[in-house]
Design brief:
The protein has 125 residues and is mostly helical. The chain is built from 6 helices and no strands.
Length: 125
């Protein structure tokens, strides 16, 4: 529900609360109908859906970190800056993405990384 004072104009607060309540009722009915149709628990179905969304967001974050470190301009983004914005530690940014994400980004933007990764360059010798 919206907090009092967060709806502008203030005289629309009751309407906003009613809209939220109606959306909740609609969502609950939709989950119940889907559960009956599919024979699954609506709570577990909602959790599965959110888990899939979270996994997709995590994958996108890893791709963006790979882009920022491996493909961006003449200088990569710094570990500290990326860590601050992605909710990682600097060492976590360094290990968050792998060759798979680098290949995905390369395919998406149609070019190779700006510099070879140290672990790739070392294994090529």
């Amino acid at each position: 529900m919206p907090e009092p004072g967060t709806v502008t104009p203030e005289d629309c607060y009751a309407d906003a609360c009613e809209q939220v309540a109606e959306q909740r009722r609609s969502d609950a009915l939709g989950l119940e109908a889907a559960a009956q149709e599919l024979g699954t628990d609506p709570l577990l179905m909602a959790l599965d859906d959110l888990k899939a969304q979270k996994e997709a967001v995590d994958a996108r974050i890893r791709q963006l970190l790979a882009f920022g470190r491996e493909f961006h301009g003449s200088r990569p983004y710094g570990l500290e800056e990326l860590a601050r914005h992605a909710g990682y530690s600097p060492s976590g940014v360094r290990t968050a993405y792998s060759d798979a994400e680098i290949r995905q980004v390369a395919a998406q933007i149609g070019r190779e990384p700006n510099r070879p990764r140290r672990d790739i360059a070392g294994s090529a010798r």
